[in-house]
Amino acid sequence: MLAALGIESIEDLFESIPEDLRYRGRPAIPDGLSEYEILDYFRARAEEGAKGYASFLGAGAYRHFRPVIIDALATRGEFLTAYTPYQAEISQGILTTIFEFQTMVAQLTGMEAANASMYDGSTAVPEAGTMAARITRRGRLLAARSLHPEYRQVLDTYYRHQHLPVETVRYDRDSGQIDLADLESKLSDEVAAVIVQSPNFFGVIDKTREAAELAHRRGALLIVIFSEAAALGILQPTAEADIVAGELQSFAHPTSYGGPCVGVLATKMKYIRQMPGRLVGETVDAGGNRAFCLTLATREQHIRRAKATSNICTNQALVALMATIYMTVFGKQGLRELAEQNLAKARYLAAAVRANAGSLVFSGPFFNEFVARPGSGDGARVNEAALEKNIVGGLELGRLYPELDGALLVCATEVNRREEMDRYAACFGPPAGGIGIE
Question: Quick one: pLDDT at residue 424?
Answer without folding.
Answer: 97
